[in-house]
Amino acid sequence: MLSYIVRRVLWIIPVLFFVSVITFSLMHAVPGGPWSREKKLPQHTIELLDAKFHLDEPVVVQYLNWIGPLLIITTGADGTSVTCCSGILAGDLGQSYKYLDRSVNEILGDGILVTMQLGVMAFLLAVAIGLPLGIVAALGHNKAPDYAATFVSVLGIATPTFVSSILLIVIFAVILGWLPTNSLKWESDPTTWILPIIALALFPIAQIARYTRASMLEVTRRDYVRTAHSKGLARRTVVIVHMIRNALIPVVTILGPILAFLITGSFIIEFIFSVPGIGREYVTSITRRDYGMIMAMTMFYAVAIAVLNLVVDVLYAYIDPRIRYS
Amino acid sequence: MTVSDPQAPAGGAGVTELDESVDIATEEGRRLAERLADNRPHARKLLEVRNLSTQFFTRDGVVHAVDEVSFDLDYGETLGLVGESGCGKSVTALSLVRLIPDPPGQIVDGQIIFDGIDILKLSRAEMRRLRGRKIGFIFQDPMTSLNPTLPIGFQISESARTHLGLSRSAAGDRAVELLSKVGIPRARDRMGDYPHQFSGGMRQRVMIAIALACDPMLLLADEPTTALDVTIQAQILDLIRSLSAEFGTAVILITHDLGIAAGMCNRVNVMYAGRIVETGVVDDVFEKARHPYAWGLLDSLPRLNETKAARLRTIEGLPPDLIDPGVECRFSPRCHYVQDKCRTAEPELTPREGVGHLARCFGTEPGGWIP
Amino acid sequence: MTEQTGAIETGVVLEKRRSAGLWGDAFRRLLRNRLAIVGGVLVIFLAFVAVFGPLLTPYEYFHQDLEMVVANNNRPLTPMQRIEGFDRVHVLGTDELGRDLLSRLMDGARISMMVALVVQTVVLVIGIPVGAAAAWFGGRVDNILMRITDVVWAYPDLLFIILLGVAFKETFFGQALDGLLLVFVAIGLTSWVTMARLVRGQLLSLKETEFVEAAKAIGVSDRKIVTRHLLPNATGPIIVAVTLGIPAAILAEATLAFIGIGVQAPRASWGSLVADGNAFVRSFPHLVIFPAVAIAVALISFTFLGDGLRDALDPKLKGKQ
Q1: Which partners does chain C have (≥3 C-beta pairs < 8 Å)?
Q2: What single-letter DSSP state applies at residue C3?
């Protein structure tokens, strides 16, 4: 097991490398640069700016600058000194080309926390509602609970996030006035969390419910359930001890993609609800060719996805005894 | 409370009488005492089945899987239910413990009296108390019949905890005891292992341990060796035989393999198309069979002294569609000895030579046309 | 009176039943599934609307009926609203520029069907060969291909699509089909990984079977084994995956359109219609509701159909075990 984990962790490094290379190339393949504005700046100014931020150097060199050399050897008046790491390996996410006076680290710092909060809370909500919904649906197969739960799931998958966001805002914030219409005050006012989290969680709730239901129905037909009944166990025991346990194992496999969805897809929610997370900057930094932001945010999302998938895979291997002890 | 002679065993194999040698101060002794009390020679039978009919309501029609099946079982007796796939033997066994999936199946008629209790009149809770406690079940495929995500120790002690009210550690001890009894070496070490860590034969032994966990009066074994290698088969059957003898457990052994039935059972019911077509003491049925289907089965067994060129004998044709069984004898389409009488009415089980030997065939009745 | 248990032999051999092939059986099972029928009918309906719809409406999707809007005080028209002096009517109303909503919805249906087609084509064209190659050659090839899928998998989808969209916007490719082809292909490029993994999984389990050994022994070429023997056996799951992948593609396009990426005005996909209508949602909700319903119908129909196909083709459900 341990070697499996270690191997998976090591594989993340080349994967991230390629992600960064692809993004860097694509960025520089796009005509224009961070200085492209509606009103064209004088060529002279552009050249000065490029020189200042080393944008006039070959692309490969720019990439290496971004990664940062592992060692920096500086020879100064007081002898040679060796320091380690600059660039991304030192955690320096680089320079934002829109906010020239702030580094990306500063800009993203607060935003990342907010985005993570949003994603994690939506995830917890999705699991807390989706799992029981799926289980109840399966246990009441072809009867009222099944129809009700299936109806809810169908609504969930039929409604894109942006549609449900709009609907929620219109109903609860504008018409009923129970909740704020946007989340600009995310940090100070928790009521601003409610609508975005619900809107974000709707689709995952439906997916989890559907998948859990299918998994439970599968398990119901298994022989070991019949064995459990033949032992004279109470129905509740059979369901909880034997069925749910086995049914949930495959469900874990979809939690990875769902978390990935929640993290990368949250930018729509942040957009609509004005949540001060990093998602909002997402699209704008691309259209503005803000290289520093683009690279940093890509790497953040890629790392998050890779790590989350790893965690889910390890979890899956851990909770299935057939894999754990083989 | 009796106090035993410290030299005498607390009770185990060989103790057949409920007397002073049984020390009910110990748990084992108590169990033995209970068992002996249960198995005292009774005026009644352990199991009386009368006109049991189980049907499945499907889109294509009503399947008469088990049609008016009647038989008895004595305490401690081993009875064989023999027949080919689809004849209704498994459905019969599942009906006895009311484990028929509903929908689409239902026990539509009949009476099942187990140890004086009318099974079909019990509430669900009462039925649950019987299952596992008084009636144990061994299923055909041990790989899929064991929960892959629970340690086997847990799966064995589950019924003991539920029915006998044992504490977790007491149930665990009992499970270890059972594991060694069924022949698993280093039982205590293996309590925490999972089913996939055992071989097929060992898994079936675990299933046997589960079935016998609460010392049931009846063991239903549904093709317990079909999924196993031939060499392992013999071991498992020996195990079932010795355990049932030791604990006085009655066994209903379901199999399509005549050899197994011959070796294990006191009496045999031959089933075909949802009906019992012949029944009797095992020697009578094998040596003095009086039903064409039974002859076909016996005849189809390959024999060692045959020449290599001889083809295997089969019974021509296929079993009938049980959705609309007609009024005729169900075996008549395939029978060599068929006459018009067979196609217009179905024979009843009537006596033949031997105690309790019955067959369902016009032709072999006294005065019939089959010699 | 009885309990739900695991699989059980019904004890029946049915002589009367013709044994149909895999597809005949599956099709019959599919027809019994009511939800799948509903899904299938809706899919056919959507396809019909996509192909013939724009030909049937009196208005074109970009036509601005400014006269009626002006007569309505410069406000969008509600469904079936009659204005004095005009004898024409817009069945679902118009937007603030007088563009007929129904026509635009039909054009949106066209776009959504194109999304489905193009994206799934890309998925099949890339996913099947990659999955098959990984499964068949195994070893290093498998390893390399799986690492490539890891990179694609780890890449934030929308970022990639947006980047591609912006990067190639000015090129010929980017202009094709009003900028839509680019977006569709980009969505496809981020979606092929599950198909590749699925195909790989299916082929891996089939690779070890005896009929493959037999084919090799006879001397059938590798390519023929894969294409004639292995892949056809995986057709069922592939069909299901394609059908169930369509809602995701439509959803992706709608979300991108909502934030302004992909379809360009005056063309409108359902997503951009929602975005446009958002500004008027309180007073003229029809501008948001109808596109939202259209999206919902498309998503639901393909999902039900895909579910039905999956149940119908599931070998475990063939008869009782």
Answers
A1: A, B
A2: -
Domains of chain A, with CATH numbers?
2-90 (no CATH), 104-319 (1.10.3720.10)
Q: How far is B78 from B252, CA to CA, in rounded Å?
A: 6
Cα angle A184, A187, A193; round to 5:
70
> For chain A, how many residues are written?
326
Beta strand B47-58 with A79-84 is unpaired
CB A205 within 8 A of CB A126: yes
For residues A292 and A101, the answer to whether their CB atoms sit within 8 Å is no
- Residue whose C-alpha is closest to residue A300's, from A322, A285, A321: A285
Residue A64 has pLDDT above 80, yes or no: no
**Does the global pTM surpass 0.90?**
no
Considering only CA atoms, which of C131, C116, C122 is closest in space to residue C164?
A: C122
Nearest to C285 by CA among C116, C111, C78, C81: C78
Identify the bridge partners of residue B358 per DSSP, sorted by sequence position: B279, B351
Contacts of C1 in chain B (CB under 8 A): 98, 102, 106-107, 124
Please give the biggest Cα pair distance in chain C: 83
Closest of B289, B292, B297, B267 to residue B280, by C-alpha: B267
Q: For residues B338 and B331, what is the distance between their CA atoms, to the nearest angstrom?
A: 9
User: Residues B299, B303, B308, B311: what is their CA dihedral angle, to the nearest 10 degrees?
Assistant: 20
CB B114 within 8 A of CB B130: yes
**Which structural domains are found in chain C, ordered by start?**
34-61+103-317 (1.10.3720.10)
Measure CB to CB from residue C2 to each of B63, B101, B318 and give the nearest one.
B101
**Which chain B residue is nearest to residue C32, measuring alpha carbons?**
B59
Contact between B105 and C2 under an 8 Å Cβ cutoff? The reply is yes
Contacts of A266 (CB under 8 A, 6+ apart): A115, A118, A119, A122, A200, A275, A277, A279
Rg of chain A on CA atoms, in Å: 25
Burial class (CB in 10 A: 0-12, 13-18, 19+), C128: buried
Q: Which residues of A touch B97 (CB under 8 A)?
A: 230
Percentage of chain A modeled with pLDDT above 70? 78
- Is B123 touching C (CB cutoff 8 A)? no
How far apart (Å, rounded) are the C-alpha atoms in residues C205 and C107? 44
CB contact under 8 A, B86 and C15: no
Q: What is the pLDDT of residue B223?
A: 92
Residue B200's pLDDT is 87
The closest of C3, B201, B120 to A228, measured between CA atoms, is C3
Residue C315 DSSP symbol: G
Q: Is the peptide bond before B224 cis (omega within 30 degrees of 0)?
A: no
ipTM > 0.90, yes or no:
no
**Which of B:280-319 have CB within 8 Å of C?**
318-319
Q: Could you tell me the two tokens for A128?
A: 């807390």
Nearest chain A residue to C310 by CA distance is A214
Give the length of chain B: 371
Per-residue confidence in pLDDT tens, chain C, 321 aa: 333 333 333 433 333 444 556 677 778 888 888 888 999 999 999 999 998 887 888 888 888 888 888 888 888 888 888 888 888 888 888 888 888 888 899 989 999 999 999 999 999 999 999 998 888 888 888 888 988 888 888 888 877 887 777 777 767 766 666 678 888 888 999 999 989 998 888 888 777 777 777 887 888 777 777 777 777 778 888 999 999 999 999 998 998 888 877 777 788 899 999 998 888 888 888 889 999 999 999 999 999 999 888 888 876 553 332
Q: What is the pLDDT of residues A223-235, one digit of tens each?
A: 999 999 999 898 8
Amino acid at position A27, single letter = M
By CB neighbour count within 10 A (0-12 exposed, 13-18 middle, 19+ buried), where does B308 fall?
exposed
